[in-house]
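Why do we care about 3D structure at all? Because function follows from shape, and shape follows, mostly, from sequence. That is the central idea of this module. The next example makes it concrete: a single protein chain, its amino acid sequence, and then its structure expressed as tokens.
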Amino acid sequence: MKKVLIVAAVAVAVAGGLALGYLAGRAGGQPATEIGVVGHSALYHCPMHPQIVSDKPGQCPICQMTLVKNVKEPRAKRVIYRSTMNPNETSDHARNDSMGMAMVPEELEEPIGGAGPSVEGLAPLVLSARQRALLDARTVRVAALPSLKTLRTVGLVTVDERRMQHVHTKIQGWIEHLHAGAVGETVRRGDPLLTIYSPELLATQREFLVALDNRARVSSTMPEVNADAEHLVEAARKRLLLQDMTEAQIDELATTREARKIVTLYAPVSGTITARNVSHGERIESATSLLDIADLSRVWVVADIYESELPFVHDGAEATIILSYLPGRAYHGRVSLISPLVDEATRTVKARIELENNDLTLRPGMFANVELLADLGERIAVPKDAVLRSGTRDIVFVRTTDGSFEPREVELGIELPDAWEIHKGLAEGEDVLAAANFFVDAESKLKAALAGAKR
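And the structure:
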């Protein structure tokens, strides 16, 4: 299995090397040629392609880089204490061995930095400025910056339910005439809606006239008698008001002293007729909904928010609404309500956005494109092209103090428009390699595979 992994890594690196060779040939005007790998006595190697070695100075046939001289890896000193009686008995600090004899200090040499790949299957790399320029690579400083996330979804223009009026009557009767007879017509408060014949309303008018006559006939010195007569008039008047007659109609009835068989009902609010449920001559009950009138000067846009996006949406969030029917025009509003219920069929939550609509260009039923701007505060993030995603792990190459780039596994957070949030693995102030990660990854895998083969 180990041999298979090594062969696969070498194949990936060769593919990267061929691509680099093509780029180098285009840049330097020299075709890339293959070279044999010499023995262990080689004194020079290509820093970009470790498999290219030579016993004399020259240039790499793949990337045209100058071969560099092999340098013995620096080693650090570590002191241990070894028993003179039993050489296999050691300790990290001075003490006596198992026989009671003092242990002798001994210095060991260990490689410092780069002793092995920090991520399994990958090894640190050294890239010069010229190599980075050839690969169009760059380094980016890790920092916590203000982060904004834009959520894009769809919405539906609907009526503001608080501005919807259902027109009813409190009496039974027959509709004689509809003044507002079509859906879509605009009415104003006080405009006539329909005329109705109601025996119940006619009887109430006559009771009011009787109460007026009774009050006129009563001329008593007793205050209680006059108060009772006045009370009957007021009771009859309130009943007419409850049966949808207006103050002006009642005053006219008191003046003419003639009950009207047909009574006109007027619009209680201004708006647009969105539904008409009755016709001429139809008998109606007190529970019958005659008309629906909506004030469309202010409307709602109801947007669908997926469950995974709910953490980024809150009351008051800025929203931009664009309609394909109105190119070049954008509406701006804020989220006023996030529904506490989830739609089981679509797994979405409704978010309400309120918009002014004085020119009535927004019509209920229109579809809209909605963009919500979520302010995420300051978060540590790196450009997307700095992260190498394999499906099982996420890798970045971090510049070390000696100028090399070491692979490091990171834990990603949310995806921003042009960056990834970093939850774990990087700290502010570190430099990471951005772009050309495919080539760097291939070389890192090859270097790790060769190191594993030597062991």
